[in-house]
Amino acid sequence: MKKCAFCNYQDKEVIIYKDAVCYAVISHDPINKHHVLVIPKKHYMQFTDLPDAVVARLFVVAKKLSLAVRKACNPIAVEHISDDDLKKTGINLVEHYKLHIIPRFKNDKITHFWNRKGDKGIKVRASYAKDIKKCLKK
Ligand SMILES: [Zn+2]
Question: Which of 14, 36, 50, 110 has CB atoms 3.0–4.6 Å from 101's, for a disulfide?
Answer without folding.
Answer: 36
